[in-house]
Amino acid sequence: MSHRYVYGVVEASDDIEFETDAVAEADQVYTITHRRYGAVVSDIDTTEPEETDEDAQRHDDVLREIMEYDGGQTIVPMQFGMAFEGDRELKNVLRNAQPAFRRALRDIEGKIELGLKLVREEDADVDREAIEDAVADELEPVAAQSVPNDLFSDRLVFNRSYLVEKEDQEEFDDAVAALEDEYGDELMFQYTGPFAPYSFVDVKIGAQG
């Protein structure tokens, strides 16, 4: 029996279908709709997919393809591993979570997520607070929102995700470049994205079974 692996949720009017390298060696992504919302899915033979590095990357790559599909789509992204027995179970979720999807799509419409990590060079002595202030001065005026992430290493002095209007990405890129010009001797810059805005949605869509 074929189950449904979910990448995210879009407006039902955004009918998405394309061939690609999807999770668990699926080769097609398509939309299952219920009223106002549609889940973008591929077929899978389990409801408990194993999170391999390869499939985690495929999940992210498919989300990027969806975001770029037909001139650009807004999608509420799901974390890796959300799979359902079949269409009926998935449509029940789409029905029951309509208010949450409506809020999430409104909040992230036309926006992308970008990430910035700053890693201290081994011999550098840096003022973390001054760096945080400098980054905030440059990036916060361009971003719609931002959230802090864990500092999981002693040398990681800054780790933050930003929600940015697609049309403002170039301005944001330039602001990051200006910071790198100023602090590049002391810090390694890890600037990533664009991603689907995982960090700015909090929609739980229930049990998979």
TrEMBL record:
Keywords: Gas vesicle. Belongs to the gas vesicle GvpF/GvpL family. It comes from Natronococcus pandeyae. Pfam families: GvpL_GvpF (PF06386). This is Protein gvpF. One of its GO terms (cellular component) is gas vesicle. It is found in: Gas vesicle. The keyword Hydrolase does not apply. Its main location: other. One of its GO terms (biological process) is gas vesicle organization. It comes from the Archaea.
